[in-house]
Amino acid sequence: MAKAVGRSKAAKAQPAAAPKAKAAAVAKATKAPAAAVAAKAKAVKAPPAPKAKTAGAQPMMAKTARGADRAKGVGLPDDVALRLYRSMLRIRTVDERMMTLQRQGRIGFYGACTGQEAAYLAAAIALEPSDWIFPALRESSAMLMRGFPLVPYLAQVFGNALDETKGRQMPSHPASRSVNQVSWGSCIGTQLPQAVGAAWAAKLRGDSTVVLAFMGDGATSAADFHTALNFAGVFKVPVVFICQNNHWAISISTKGQTASETYAMKAAAYGFPGVKVDGNDAKAVYAAATEAIARARRGEGPTLLECETYRMGAHSSSDDPSRYRDQAEVDAWAKRDPIQALFRELCEGGLWSEEKDKALRDELLAEVNEAIAAAEAGPDPEPETLFDDVFGELPWHLREQRDECLASLAREKAGA
Ligand SMILES: Cc1ncc(C[n+]2csc(CCOP(=O)(O)OP(=O)(O)O)c2C)c(N)n1
Ligand SMILES: [Mg+2]
Questions:
Q1: Which atom belonging to ligand 1 lies closest to the Cα atom of 246?
Q2: Signal sequence: where (predicted)?
Q3: 259 pLDDT exceeds 80?
Q4: Which atom of ligand 1 approaches the CA of 245 most closely?
Q5: pLDDT confidence tier of residue 179, bands split at 50, 70 and 90
Q6: In the chain, at which end, N or C, are there fewer CB atoms within 10 A of the end residue's CB?
Q7: Is 311 designated active site?
Q8: Measured from the CA of 216, which atom of ligand 1 is nearest?
Q9: Considering 146, 297, 311, 361, which one is annotated as catalytic?
Q10: Could you give the CA distance from residue 351 to residue 282 in angstroms, rounded to a whole number?
Q11: What's the CA gap between 19 and 26, in Å, rounded?
Q12: Segment 238-267 mean pLDDT
């Protein structure tokens, strides 16, 4: 089951803005089960229905005693829906606080995923713990949902000694082997052939690993996109490509990015299914991802899933989107916020309430503020760690550089 929703003692902390509409006032929660939602997804070529779960694979989410227990109005297993909602709200809270810290000069750079939480978390929650994630730019918090602790996650942005990658990566690029998630590449599209390579390795080994390979819409213009999809199609590797179509690649809109009607249809050129879903609809993403992951695990090859969503904020803390896009477009998408949508559906389904929501928001804000304080207090990484982890045994020329660097720092410290 999802972690119980606790009452926060930190009532003084300001909660993030609660959805205004009362659950009762909100109609039209889709009551269709996951399979029906998948059928509604615009499929270029519908993948075959998934069969029974792969033998031996441990489901990430425990089922309730009744098996496929579904929230009435949600179309997801209850525990998945609640854990997903918590994860979505948690990263929204983190993003709001970190953007503020950046403006306060406490961190150098930050990239938020605001508005896109369902488009990747509802897919990642369908994975087994042994599966891998190759993120693009905005999927970092799948790590948190899969069990990575918050303090080292935030310490990565501060780049200090509490960061598992020892402050050597650009801020907002976390990674950890403990949860099978690699770093953002930052070079657009490079993660795609790498993900295909990892999936191919799994196939050669004969294990049941599936790889989720995320990309933004911008990555579909990169040569690596075509290389990766072609190879994956020919070798039928167990990879699911997920394109988060958030309508913008910094200042380039969809119209400037592709002449195709959809991104999903590009899969047809490589001989595997492409499926487009509403990326702000958690149940639709979950259903389509579950099916694509099952297909990959059965050895039937890749799927390209396009999750249509919207980047509500700036490209990064270094960007000013008002210079290239119309506020009316942003306002229209604000009405389709994925967190508010899932909140309404959870309430409609009898799983959630305004009171529980307020308590969760207070709890998460207190947790995030405490974690920020702990992460910010971390010491600088030791200078010699700069040379760790690339080589099993440091080659002579790097040993020389390290010794020279440390001697120079020691001289500096001694005031020489
Ligand atoms: C190969 C390469 N070209 C250009 C850039 C500069 N750049 C950084 S992010 C970005 C846009 C990415 O857009 P998209 O893939 O849609 O992801 P989003 O930011 O929307 O999540 C570009 C062009 C880069 N990092 N790498
Ligand atoms: Mg984009």
A1: 20
A2: none
A3: yes
A4: 16
A5: very high
A6: C
A7: yes
A8: 15
A9: 311
A10: 15
A11: 11
A12: 98
User: Comparing C-alpha atoms, which of 3, 25, 17, 16 is closest to residue 347?
Assistant: 25
pLDDT computed for residue 19 by the predictor = 38
Does residue 247 contact residue 325 with C-beta atoms inside 8 Å? no
Rounded to an integer, the average pLDDT of 243-247 is 98
The predicted pLDDT at position 185 comes to 77
Residue nearest to atom 19 of ligand 1 (CA): 249
Amino acid identity at 318: S
Position with higher pLDDT, 214 vs 61:
214
3-state secondary structure of 211: strand
Going from the Cα of 122 to the center of ligand 2, the distance in angstroms, rounded, reads: 18
Instruction: Please confirm, yes or no, whether 70 is among the known catalytic residues.
Output: no
- Spell out the domain ranges in the chain: 27-320+327-381, 386-416
Residues 6+ apart with CB under 8 A from 16: 89, 92, 93, 96, 361, 364, 365
Question: How close is the Cα of 316 to the center of ligand 1, in Å?
Answer: 11
C-alpha–C-alpha distance, residues 181 and 188, integer Å: 17
- Mean pLDDT, rounded, for 298-307: 98
CATH fold, domain 27-320+327-381, is Rossmann fold (3.40.50)
Active site residue 324: yes
CA of 95 to the centre of ligand 2 (A): 18
- Distance separating alpha carbons of residues 213 and 89, to the nearest angstrom: 23
- Model pLDDT for residues 363-385, shown as the tens digit of each residue: 999 999 999 999 999 999 999 99
Ligand 1 atom nearest residue 190's Cα: 1
Ligand 1: residues with CB < 6 A are 137-138, 186-188, 216-219, 222, 246, 248-250, 311, 315
pLDDT at 24: 35
**Residue 2 confidence (pLDDT) above 60:** no
Q: Ligand 1 pocket: which of 188, 244, 307 to mutate (most atoms <8 Å of CB)?
A: 188
